[in-house]
Design brief:
Oligomer: single chain
CATH superfamily of the largest domain: Thiamin diphosphate (ThDP)-binding fold, Pyr/PP domains
Strand order of the largest sheet: 4-3-5-6-8-7
Radius of gyration: 25 Å
CATH architecture of the largest domain: 3-Layer(aba) Sandwich
Shape: globular
Number of strands: 22
Number of domains: 3
Distance between the termini: 57 Å
Length: 610
């Protein structure tokens, strides 16, 4: 056996550089890195030696670097991924939030936190967390519950099994998610004689799980027996590349489609059988169909509570549930009739089993009525309107500025609900929402990842001042790397979304909007100056007309372009939507809370146990 002598870190980098997609591209597009004493000497030296094959990028925060990597994988429909490395201690634990985000969204990312010395000779080292009852524990054990595969590398040769397992997890459609390889810092630098064959290029083929014929027949029988079926399209439609298959299926069988946050853009917004977004942030058209559906067919969705209205939306008597999903865990949720398979394969097999069976879809009038209600909300205000713009009007301006190749993206706060209802997504991948974890701070880093995934597309990031303050440092990274993104910051002076929720549950306005918080000095942040100081071109829009003019300027920018606009924190789209379970106190001195509790209890009666 021919061997080659390398450090463990060099071996890891060489192996990862040789892992390829079916299209002949490296599976890992590169590595985001912030170096410290836990990875600078070992992995840092190894990455420097491979910088022509495996690019390394420097960010400003470990969590946001991982967000960029995750957004890249999402926009690539899980076809490719990135790695992220940190030092031990706070550098590593900064990434735990991002690991949870990737886990919830079933997205691949390789996390390589440095770890303590396997030898334990210098213990306790700087930033080491000591467990008084378990000598094997380090801070990196925080990654265990939020990783689909976790390993701690305490000997070099462990990579011979750990790295293939990591790749198998990230490329498996059902098991896909974050992988954490905690890499002891002394082991990174240790040499080993590696089999040369270990570094041979390997192609990882995308597995398409075909359905069980018995499951196909049972689901087809359920569809034939249904009077009012509906398809709930989730993110799995995109990950499978099944948007075309979905369009063919509904054209043949007449079953209406509604879309989750992750599934939005599976069909164009104006497709005659796409009845819009579903659930808590859903359209009146979609939710009306779902309320009457006797068969709910989930395709690539994990049935999050925002999709199901906390399981009170699908309330037709005798309603049945079908779940077409690659993951067995998701396929059987809430007593669903499972069809465990790839979305493309499953829709094709199901269509063949149905033959000429066709449903009569709902009247298009229900969809037209929805747009008649909400389209005026996105119109620009009149010339005599001096009120602060609404988020809906901001969305309207961005929509008018968007082109066919625009990707609008967001993650948390007010905008996800408004965009889900109001954004008209014209093609697959034009709507990128991280709403599985709804993680504030994902937005700017995520926009970078999207642009790196699809450089030819125009990326518009929409976020509030709250999310901007949570994590804005990667705006400097975008400027340094020359990444062109447009960032629209809606400044409503605080957490407007949660303030509305607080009021809706009977609470007093407290600690959400800055004007309702106790501060010695009132907040007055110049977001334009701040963004400009990090290298972005930044402007303040005093009106919707100014915003439209700024968005036109943004098209000519060569790097990040930021537009800040003050907005009203109170209005939201009054149409559509659904109840969402947020527990209201049983006991309160406030009569508003007592009244809200009554409504809460009434809505809970509508929830289905399965």
């Amino acid at each position: 056996m021919t061997t080659i002598r390398l450090t463990a870190a060099q071996a890891m980098v060489r192996y990862l550089s040789a892992q390829m997609t079916e299209e002949g591209e490296p599976f890992l597009a590169g590595v985001w890195a912030i170096f410290g004493h836990g990875n600078v000497a070992g992995l840092g030296e190894a990455l420097y030696g491979a910088r022509d094959r495996l690019p390394t990028w420097r960010g400003h925060n470990e969590q946001s670097m991982a967000h960029a990597a995750i957004a890249y994988a999402k926009q690539q429909r899980r076809r490719r991924a990135m790695a992220v490395t940190s030092s031990i201690g706070p550098g590593a634990t900064n990434m735990v939030t991002a690991a949870a985000l990737a886990h919830v969204n079933r997205l691949p990312v390789l996390l390589l936190p440095g770890d303590v010395f396997a030898s334990r000779a210098p213990d306790p080292v700087l930033q080491q967390v000591e467990d008084f009852g378990d000598g094997t524990v380090s801070a990196n054990d925080c990654f265990r519950p939020v990783s689909r595969y976790f390993d701690r590398i305490t000997r070099p040769e462990q990579l011979l099994t750990a790295l293939p397992r990591a790749m198998a997890t990230m490329t498996d459609p059902a098991e896909c998610g974050p992988v954490t390889l905690a890499f002891c810092q002394d082991v990174q630098a240790e040499a080993h004689d590696w089999p040369e064959a270990f570094f041979a290029p390997r192609i990882w083929h995308r597995r398409r799980l075909r359905p069980d014929l018995g499951e196909v027949e049972r689901v087809a029988a359920a569809i034939r027996a249904a009077r009012n079926p509906v398809i709930v399209a989730g993110g799995g439609v995109h990950y499978s590349g099944a948007t075309g298959a979905l369009a063919e299926f509904v054209a043949a069988h007449g079953i209406p489609v509604v879309e989750t946050q992750a599934g939005k853009s599976a069909l164009p917004w104006d497709h005659p059988i796409n009845f819009g977004p579903v659930g808590v942030t859903g359209a009146g058209s979609a939710n009306a169909i779902c309320a009457e559906a006797d068969l709910v067919i989930g395709v690539g969705t994990r049935f999050q509570d925002f999709t199901t209205g906390s399981w009170a939306l699908f309330r037709a008597p005798g309603r049945k549930l079908v779940s077409l999903n690659v993951a067995a865990y998701d396929a059987v949720k809430h007593g669903a009739l499972p069809l465990q398979c790839d979305a493309t394969e499953g829709l094709a097999a199901l269509s063949a089993a149905l033959g000429g069976h066709a449903n009569v879809p709902p009247s298009p009038a229900i969809k037209a009525a929805w747009f008649a209600q909400v389209d005026p909300l996105t119109d620009p205000p009149g010339s005599d309107d001096n009120a602060l713009p609404t988020d809906m009007q901001v969305i309207g301006a961005v929509q008018r500025a968007a082109g066919p190749d625009t990707v609008v993206m967001c993650a948390a706060g007010t905008m996800p609900g408004e965009l889900h209802k109001l954004w008209k997504a014209g093609r697959p991948g034009s709507y990128h929402m991280e709403y599985g974890f709804s993680c504030m701070g994902y937005e700017i880093a995520g926009a970078i990842g999207i642009k790196m995934a699809e450089p030819d597309r125009d990326v518009i990031c929409m976020l509030g001042d709250g999310s901007y303050m949570m994590m804005n440092s990667e705006l400097a990274t975008a400027a340094m790397m020359g990444i062109k993104i447009t960032v629209v910051i809606t400044d409503n002076r605080g957490f407007g979304c949660i303030n509305r929720l607080q009021r809706a549950t009977g609470g007093a306005e407290f600690n959400n909007l800055l004007d309702h918080a106790v501060h010695e000095t009132p907040s007055n942040i110049d977001f334009v100056a701040h963004a400009a100081s990090m290298g972005a071109e930044a402007v303040k829009a005093g009106s919707i007309a100014d915003l439209e003019a700024a968005l036109a300027r943004a098209k000519e920018a060569t790097g990040p372009f930021v537009v800040v606009i003050d907005t009203d924190p109170y209005p939201s789209t009054p149409h559509g939507g659904h109840w969402w379970e947020v527990a209201v106190p049983e006991v309160s001195d406030r009569p508003e809370v007592t009244e809200a509790r009554k409504g809460y209890e009434e809505n809970r009666k509508r929830q289905s146990a399965i």
